[in-house]
């Protein structure tokens, strides 16, 4: 009915208009849930292009383009039939895309391998955290123990795969400290030059040793280790099924400190043309040439030494002594032949009355090169 204006018009004759009810919500509409963590792959199914949907009560209505709506995040969705020229939009049907509910990884059961200093029993190639720090097990299910873990309580978590699983409950594993270095281990020094007879003592078969920081660890076979060259050696207690190798104890095998031979004090015997005052049978060098004194401590003077300074060194014995400091000994040249000496000839057949003249008692003579010298 159109109301009159109360002045010039009265109410109209009434029109009768039948308004239909809102159609029922579409039937059969359903939702599929998310299939992995944060997959956002939920869907509306059994829909058609005559429908529209929205996410949550505050969402905007969106036309359905086909027979499904995909890539939906977990939430409540509403679906209704769109209005037509002859019908209102329908009631809304609500469906829920549920978030994926992942499974937690299995709690780790790592075991300590004390000899290899590794954690074992992990998932090969598996991602973990140890005390919050990310680590990865090797292909053989092992993980090297870091020195900072010794003496600590470890919280070991198997990481979820980000798709189907979440992080595990933590395993708590107490890692013992490294044992103290063995006490009482000592070294004995080399006893002669290059003897290589140093030793480790107060050791046992539960220990191992190495030479220098770069050496390889070697098992101790008894209560000592012998025939060692001078160097620094490290000794530690070997690992057992319940304990790591110990800290290392360092000891030093010192090289033998040899004593130099006494500096020679050779004296020239001008008459015998010898050096005297040497060690009987002693080995020497004279101007770097090896020589040996006789059993009386004497050494014949070689003609090439005349007029030459000699450097005389007593050789070390190669065991307890080294070469001496050199003695420098100046050997004078041989004096010139006496001047003015002459001979007188034989005066008759077989007279044998030749003579040497202008000689004195400070001289000597001999007949021929093979003769003996006579005063």
Shape: rod-shaped
> How many separate helices?
0
Mean pLDDT: 97
- Give the CA-CA distance, first to last residue: 182 Å
Weakly predicted, low-confidence segments: none
Based on secondary structure, the structural category is mainly beta
Taken together, the total number of domains comes to: 4
Supply Rg: 57 Å
**What share of the residues does DSSP label as strand, in percent?**
25-35%
In quaternary terms, these chains amount to single chain
Number of strands: 34
Biggest sheet strand order reads 4-3-6-7
Helix content: under 10%
Q: Biggest sheet, in brief? A: 4 strands, antiparallel
How would you describe the overall organization of this protein?
The structure is a single chain. This protein is mainly beta. The chain folds into four domains: 30-97; 104-174, no CATH class; 186-253; 260-330, no CATH class. The chain has no helices and 34 strands. The protein has strands at 30-32, 42-45, 51-55, 62-63, 68-72, 75-81, 93-97, 103-104, 111-113, 118-120, 127-130, 133-136, 143-144, 153-158, 165-166, 171-174, 186-188, 198-201, 207-211, 218-219, 224-228, 231-237, 249-253, 259-260, 267-269, 274-276, 283-286, 289-292, 299-300, 309-314, 321-322, 327-330, 342-344, 355-357. The strands form eleven sheets. Strands 4-3-6-7 form a four-stranded antiparallel beta sheet, with no helix packed on it. Strand 3 and strand 4 (62-63) form a beta hairpin.
């Amino acid at each position: 009915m159109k109301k009159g204006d109360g002045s010039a018009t009265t109410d109209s004759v009434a029109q009768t208009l039948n308004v239909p009810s809102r159609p029922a919500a579409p039937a059969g509409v359903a939702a599929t849930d998310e299939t992995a963590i944060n997959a956002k792959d939920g869907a509306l199914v059994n829909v058609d292009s005559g429908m529209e949907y929205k996410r949550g009560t505050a969402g905007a209505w969106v036309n359905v383009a086909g027979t499904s709506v995909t890539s939906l995040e977990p939430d409540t969705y509403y679906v209704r039939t769109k209005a037509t020229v002859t019908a209102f939009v329908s009631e809304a049907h609500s469906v829920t895309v549920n978030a994926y509910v992942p499974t937690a990884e299995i709690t780790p059961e790592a075991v300590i391998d004390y000899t290899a200093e590794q954690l074992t029993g992990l998932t090969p190639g598996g991602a973990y955290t140890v005390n919050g720090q990310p680590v990865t097990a090797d292909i053989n299910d092992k993980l090297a123990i870091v020195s900072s873990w010794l003496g600590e309580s470890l919280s070991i978590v198997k990481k979820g795969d980000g798709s189907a699983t979440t992080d595990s409950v933590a395993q708590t594993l107490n890692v013992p400290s490294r044992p103290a270095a063995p006490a009482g281990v000592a070294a004995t020094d080399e006893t002669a030059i290059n003897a290589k007879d140093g030793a480790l003592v107060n050791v046992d078969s539960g220990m191992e040793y190495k030479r220098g920081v770069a050496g390889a660890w070697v098992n101790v076979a008894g209560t000592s280790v012998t025939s060692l060259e001078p160097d620094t050696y490290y000794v530690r207690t070997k690992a057992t099924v319940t304990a790591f190798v110990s800290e290392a104890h360092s000891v030093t095998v010192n090289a033998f400190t040899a004593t130099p031979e006494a500096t020679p004090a050779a004296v020239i015997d001008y008459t015998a043309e010898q050096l005297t005052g040497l060690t009987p049978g002693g080995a020497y060098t004279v101007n770097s040439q090896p020589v040996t004194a006789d059993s009386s401590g004497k050494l014949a003077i070689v003609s090439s030494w005349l007029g030459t300074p000699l450097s005389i060194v007593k050789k070390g014995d190669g065991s307890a002594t080294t070469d001496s400091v050199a003695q420098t000994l100046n050997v004078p040249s041989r004096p010139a032949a006496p001047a003015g000496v002459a001979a007188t000839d034989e005066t008759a057949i077989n007279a044998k009355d030749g003579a040497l003249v202008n000689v004195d008692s400070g001289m000597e003579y001999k007949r021929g090169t093979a003769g003996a010298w006579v005063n």
